[in-house]
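Batch job 17 of 40 flagged for manual review because the log was empty.
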Amino acid sequence: MSEDFNMTMRKFLKQVGVTSQQAIEDAMRTAGTEATTGKSFDAKVVLTIDGLEIEHVVTGKIAGRS
């Protein structure tokens, strides 16, 4: 793959990671300590790319406050 491709892909994935973490942290703060303490939350990310017919799904769990 080209250097331009690698750079734009890494930039996009970094943006996804940073903004997703911020959104999760905001949601945890909004939900409050009582609603998140000792719980875990199912998470799913769906990546689609127009023109490439790709749908990539990542699932996991995020722990609440301990």
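Reviewer: the log was empty due to a logging misconfiguration, but the result itself is present. The CA atoms of residues 14 and 62 lie 19 Å apart. Unflagging and moving on to job 18.
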